[in-house]
Amino acid sequence: MLSEKLLNEMNDQVKYEMFSANYYLAMSAYFMDLDLPGFATFFRVQAQEEQMHAMKFFDFIDEVNGRARIQAMDEPKGDFESIESVIEAALEHEQFVTERIHLLMEIAVEEKNYPAVSFLNWFVDEQVEEEATFQQLMAKIKRVGAKGHILYLLDKEMGARQPE
Ligand code: FEO
After folding, report:
1. Residues of the domain holding 140
2. Distance, CA of 149 to chain centre
3. Which CATH number covers residue 95?
4. Per-residue pLDDT of the chain (164 residues; tens, 9 = 90+)
5. Residue 155: CB within 6 Å of ligand 1?
6. Residue 45: CB within 6 Å of ligand 1?
7. Residue 164 included in any domain
8. pTM surpassing 0.90?
């Protein structure tokens, strides 16, 4: 059972996770346009993960007798200045999602809703991974650059990402 406050916030989270999927798909399209199929694949897989995150919230809401609400979403930004600016945007977005998950956790703890706390624990851990992924990628690109032969190798490496 979810309080009205927690239900509303969880429903907003379904929207934010679906927005994340669209945002990463827009990034994937940007890379397809640049003829960087590896980066495009990486962000496409990331988008699939975000859909899975949205469905986790969707299913949890149902399991605790709530009703998921599908909301309208803004169009994500799809134009970027550089590869670095895409990674920076992804990292900033994940930091925003982390804040959202922490807000949900704070409410769940305050309301002593232990099933929700248990459910949200997975997302707390996941956000550590999500931020680390983009931080490491940013560090790598800053270290080796993203031009010429290095960019070719990096694109190949990015394309190896498989859906989980
Ligand atoms: Fe679902 Fe990347 O946060």
Report:
1. 4-159
2. 29
3. 1.20.1260.10
4. 899 999 999 999 999 999 999 999 999 999 999 999 999 999 999 999 999 999 999 999 999 999 999 999 999 999 999 999 999 999 999 999 999 999 999 999 999 999 999 999 999 999 999 999 999 999 999 998 888 999 999 999 999 989 87
5. no
6. no
7. no
8. yes
